[in-house]
């Protein structure tokens, strides 16, 4: 039986089970939250990103979730600096050209601030610079892609939460919590 775990990765946690390269000042890892042998992340989230991380004990499922060739949609709630206008959102929708090449088209829209947990530490606040939330759905997963995309259109990311991967959602999971989820039967 394939095991699939949905985990709400808190801010500051590495998407790996050990931090061998930093023995002097150990950083939080998945092992601080999940004690299950044989499961591994299907994809990654940066240390300064939060949200849904799927873990599985099945290599084929891991590849299907994380490989860009399967075009699994990943939806992010993104707090950005400034107020993106229609042209900025349209650029995200059409795909932007980053240093490592053009991104695939994305879905992007402004949203009301989501009803989510507070971040620790809080996002920096500046009275003179407004911020806004957008929902961004991509089918790739390049290194820091969402952050680079929003910066490219002039709106640096302040907070990044992955809310959904394919059929699986973060719904009902508090930071640091995990649950077993049924594998999507459509392989």
Please tell me about this protein's structure:
By secondary structure, the chain is of the alpha+beta class. The protein is 13% helix and 29% strand. It contains three helices and eleven strands. It has helices at 59-66, 86-94, 145-152, and strands at residues 4-9, 40-41, 50-56, 74-81, 97-98, 101-102, 107-111, 131-138, 157-165, 168-169, 178-180. The strands form two sheets. Strands 1, 2, 3, 4, 7, 8, 9, 10 and 11 form a nine-stranded mixed beta sheet that branches. The two termini are 15 Å apart. The model has no long low-confidence stretch (mean pLDDT 90).
Fraction of residues in helix? 10-25%
Mean pLDDT: 90
The number of distinct helices, counting runs of at least 4 residues, comes to: 3
Distance between the termini: 15 Å
**Large-scale geometry:** globular
Order of helices and strands: EEEHEHEEEEHEEE
Content of β-strand: 25-35%
**β-strand number:** 11
- Return residue spans where pLDDT drops below 50 for at least 5 consecutive residues: none
Tell me which oligomeric state these chains represent.
single chain
What is the SS-derived class? Answer: alpha+beta
* Major sheet details: 9 strands, mixed
In angstroms, what is the radius of gyration? 17 Å
């Amino acid at each position: 039986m394939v095991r699939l775990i949905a985990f709400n990765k808190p801010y500051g946690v590495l998407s790996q089970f050990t931090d061998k390269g930093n023995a002097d000042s150990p950083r939080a890892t998945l092992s601080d939250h999940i004690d299950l042998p044989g499961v591994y992340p299907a994809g990654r989230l940066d240390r300064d990103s939060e949200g849904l991380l799927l873990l599985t004990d099945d290599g084929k499922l891991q590849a299907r979730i994380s490989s860009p060739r399967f075009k699994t949609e990943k939806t992010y709630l993104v707090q950005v600096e400034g107020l993106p206008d229609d042209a900025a959102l349209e650029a995200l929708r059409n795909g932007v050209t980053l240093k490592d090449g053009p991104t695939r088209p994305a879905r992007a829209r402004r949203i009301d601030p989501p009803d989510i947990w507070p971040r620790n530490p809080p996002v920096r606040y500046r009275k003179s610079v407004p911020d806004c939330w957008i929902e961004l759905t991509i089918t790739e997963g390049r290194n820091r892609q969402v952050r680079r995309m929003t910066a490219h259109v002039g709106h640096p990311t302040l907070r990044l939460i992955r809310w959904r991967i394919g059929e699986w959602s973060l719904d009902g999971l508090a930071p640091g919590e995990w649950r077993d989820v049924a594998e999507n039967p459509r392989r």
